[in-house]
Amino acid sequence: MALARKLKHMNLFNEGKSYLAEAISVTPPKLARKYEEYRGGGMDRAVKIDMGGEPLEMEWTLGGPDRTVIRQHGMTQLAAVALRFAGSYQNDETGGYDTIEITVRGRHEEIDRGEQKTGEGGEMKVKSALVYYREEWNGRIEIEIDVLNMVFIVDGVDLMAEARAAIL
User: Fold this and answer.
1) CATH code (residue 141)
2) Helix (H, G, I), strand (E, B) or coil at 76
């Protein structure tokens, strides 16, 4: 029996600024594809045709207000802000650690400071709309998605290379 890896430590960086001891949670982007049903003549049932990826977004929460995030509000460039999540996942069966890093670029869609009360935490929640995503496990790139440059690499294979070559 193998035990699942569990997140034991993490950090979040915003344009290189460390949020060690400030970041409370990070919800990595959901990797989703858009499928459209298609049933042509002679087909007994419909199949789902891959129509490309769904939009990428990441949500994260800090323990209090942060001026860096406020100053990034309303950025006009799609890839204006670089964020990096670093997670240390341990397998308690072996004691070994895996490092998972997620690097993204985008801009903030929502900055939610919620209710502010004296003597309470006053968390700051941020939702970032993304155009770039890279996930590394122990230094190896597993997935890289660069929406603006038509790059979609999974396990070392660029699934967009042929389509990109056909139109460029």
Assistant:
1) 2.30.110
2) coil
